[in-house]
Inverse folding.
């Protein structure tokens, strides 16, 4: 690796680690268009553009409300305290920049190819339980596909996972989603 | 050194501690009771909806601040250290032990008998159900007859559980809704369950946690609560064996040790920290730790091993309806005495195993958008039940909690190290137990055109207990059936540490029943 490349990598890494608070608070900065394009490429098309934009906006709020260093939950048998890593906003910003030309032009298939290559390079293997900061596209997918809405879409029923509901109608089979149209829920 | 005096000093602030405090304050009005807990008060029920939301969205701790970073131990199951203890984040499964748990030696020639009968204990378990608030239906087994009905009707089975009950019972095994410390109707000032699906942090107060009782006792000025205060050792009378004091330190005033004086001391610090405190309290007459003339403190650490299987069900299920609510069967809690010993409960939960969204299809193709959603939808046609079996496995004498000189807290105290070991008989029957459980899973699957997706044996023991086992013989036990230590007439132990064996179903209500029975005896002794 050339000295200049090494230097750039080091600066990039340092920049990610020392992300100023405003960068998280102002996420995605000038890259809102790219974020929305990625959302439109990786989330269900059946949500419609308005729907994927809405998820991108919700994800933006998630990034802005992220608390680096917050105590993390621990399951049984885990007694070591772990804390949330640094804000993923810097990583996301770099990936938005890197993918900018790929996701703002071209066909849906081409966009997905570029995103898939970028996710593979970042070591993404699957959709997690919560976004892990590895890649903005996979985290956006995790953010959406682990949501109560996505669960309802998958089961084509109003299950209401993680939403507080009365116990009175527990025994009833969940009602079908209205019209089966995912846009109706957004 | 500040000195605090009271009639009773309770060391520890979990579910056993609060039940002792509540019952003593009722039986002996006017008694001065001080509860000393190392962890903080987390009396912010109004924030639990927010904590829950951040736990779901970010994986953050549902109980911020519920630990002391340097007061942990090797081999423990939960790190929780806060007023309310582990029961702050339990799921409220309120099953009971059975007669067999208390008569292992006399029925099967295994382990040891408890120094009391189930009939003696059961009425206190029923009392615990009433104090805590348990919703439940009667067990279909006549041997499970109760002295009093559950104080609340059962939480209604979800659609998923109704389907799985029909499914599992085709194999001839009766199931019913697990009794729960969750309100099926408003109870004791707390709300009805709202099926929030996150019982480890209940945002509505429907699932019992000890902070509610602590707040009631504090409001009535029936107790004094000192939180963030670690009791590091007990102090014995110069010539007698009575305990006269306990020395501790407040985490915000580490240079100022405090002394607690009382007529009676109750160590209610759970399965790890009760033994730790006794082993950490020594003098020339008890060089191996207080209450430890038998060398049994820290021994027979127990719990129950378990196996989990995910079984595909020939019905569409809808995970997310009430995931922490299981069906339970007690069919295999009672082993005939003329057959090889095996005992276990069966609990069935809704599951998302193999039904989660995934990034790659079966052939490794990366999925996006509607393709990913459709891949997920196609896998939801048949549901999955998570079947968990807690089985009876008995500890050896060398299943131990010891003090680890290489791991110390900020005050220089060696911290506990727990290594669980099964006794020889339990080790010898591991294979048979696993075969029996596998056979039951196969039977359920075969009766229903099901597919067993996977079977896993856990690598730790759940619902840990022991370390200060009760018994009638002072040479082979630490305390009697009321928790009174054999060595010190005014020192009692409560709850989990006193169990000789760990049973094969959720243990909290048994801990609570033993605690309430002990509290009655404490009141008589005061």
């Amino acid at each position: 690796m050339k000295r200049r490349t090494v230097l750039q990598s080091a600066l990039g890494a340092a920049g990610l680690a020392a992300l100023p608070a405003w960068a998280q608070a102002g996420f995605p900065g000038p890259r809102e268009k790219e974020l929305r394009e990625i959302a439109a490429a990786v989330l269900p098309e059946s949500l419609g553009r308005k729907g994927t934009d809405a998820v991108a906006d919700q994800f933006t709020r998630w990034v802005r409300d992220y608390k680096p260093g917050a105590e993390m939950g621990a399951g049984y048998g885990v007694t070591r305290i772990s804390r949330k890593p640094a804000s993923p906003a810097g990583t996301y910003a770099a990936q938005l920049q890197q993918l900018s030309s790929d996701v703002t032009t071209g066909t849906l298939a081409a966009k997905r190819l570029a995103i898939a290559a970028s996710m593979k390079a970042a070591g993404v293997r699957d959709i997690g339980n919560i976004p892990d900061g590895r890649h903005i596209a996979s985290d956006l997918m995790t953010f959406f596909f682990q949501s109560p809405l996505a669960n309802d879409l998958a089961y084509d029923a109003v299950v209401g996972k993680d939403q507080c509901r009365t116990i009175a109608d527990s025994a009833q089979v969940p009602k079908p989603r209205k019209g089966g149209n995912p846009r109706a829920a957004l | 050194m500040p000195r605090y005096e009271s009639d009773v000093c309770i060391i520890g602030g979990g579910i056993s501690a609060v039940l002792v405090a509540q019952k003593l304050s009722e039986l002996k009005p006017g008694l001065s009771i001080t509860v000393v807990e190392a962890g903080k008060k987390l009396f912010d029920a109004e924030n639990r909806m927010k904590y829950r939301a951040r736990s779901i969205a970010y994986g953050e701790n549902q109980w911020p601040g519920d630990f002391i970073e340097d007061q942990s131990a090797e081999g423990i199951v939960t790190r929780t250290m806060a007023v309310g203890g582990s029961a702050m984040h339990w799921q409220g499964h309120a099953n009971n032990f059975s007669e067999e748990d208390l008569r292992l030696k006399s029925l099967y020639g295994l382990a040891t008998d408890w120094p009391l009968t189930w009939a003696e204990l059961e009425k206190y378990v029923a009392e615990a159900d009433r104090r805590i608030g348990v919703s439940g239906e009667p067990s279909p087994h006549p041997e499970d007859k109760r002295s009093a009905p559950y104080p609340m009707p059962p939480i209604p089975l979800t659609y998923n559980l109704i389907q799985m009950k029909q499914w599992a019972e085709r194999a001839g095994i009766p199931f019913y809704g697990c009794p729960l410390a969750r309100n099926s109707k408003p109870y004791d000032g707390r709300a009805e369950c709202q099926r929030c699906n996150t019982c480890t942090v209940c945002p509505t107060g429907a699932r019992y946690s000890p902070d509610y009782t602590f707040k009631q006792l504090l409001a009535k000025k029936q107790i004094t609560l000192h939180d963030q205060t670690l009791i590091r050792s007990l102090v014995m009378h110069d010539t007698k064996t009575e305990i006269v004091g306990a020395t501790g330190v407040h985490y915000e005033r580490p240079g100022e040790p405090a002394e607690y004086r009382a007529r009676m001391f109750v160590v209610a610090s759970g399965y790890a920290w009760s033994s730790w405190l006794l082993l950490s309290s020594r003098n020339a007459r008890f060089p191996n730790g207080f209450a430890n003339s038998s060398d049994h403190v820290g021994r027979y650490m127990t719990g129950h091993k378990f196996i989990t299987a995910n079984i595909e069900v020939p019905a569409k299920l809808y995970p997310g309806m009430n995931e922490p609510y299981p069906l339970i069967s007690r069919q295999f809690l009672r082993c005939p005495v003329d057959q090889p010993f095996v005992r276990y409960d069966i609990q069935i939960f809704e599951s998302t195993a193999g039904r989660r969204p995934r990034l790659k299809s079966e052939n490794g193709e990366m999925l996006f958008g509607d393709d990913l959603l459709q891949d997920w939808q196609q896998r939801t046609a048949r549901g999955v039940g998570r079947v968990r079996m807690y089985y009876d496995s008995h500890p050896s004498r060398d299943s131990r909690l010891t003090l680890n000189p290489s791991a110390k807290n900020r005050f220089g105290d060696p911290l506990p190290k727990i290594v669980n070991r099964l006794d020889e008989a339990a080790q010898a029957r591991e294979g048979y137990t696993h075969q029996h459980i596998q056979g039951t899973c196969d039977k359920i699957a075969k009766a229903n055109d099901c597919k067993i997706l996977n079977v896993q044996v856990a690598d730790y023991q759940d619902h840990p207990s022991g370390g200060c086992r009760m018994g009638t013989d002072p040479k082979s036990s630490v305390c009697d059936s009321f928790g009174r230590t054999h060595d010190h007439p005014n020192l009692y132990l409560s709850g989990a540490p006193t169990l000789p064996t760990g049973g094969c179903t959720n243990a909290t209500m048994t801990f609570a029943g033993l605690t309430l029975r002990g509290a009655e005896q404490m009141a008589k002794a005061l």
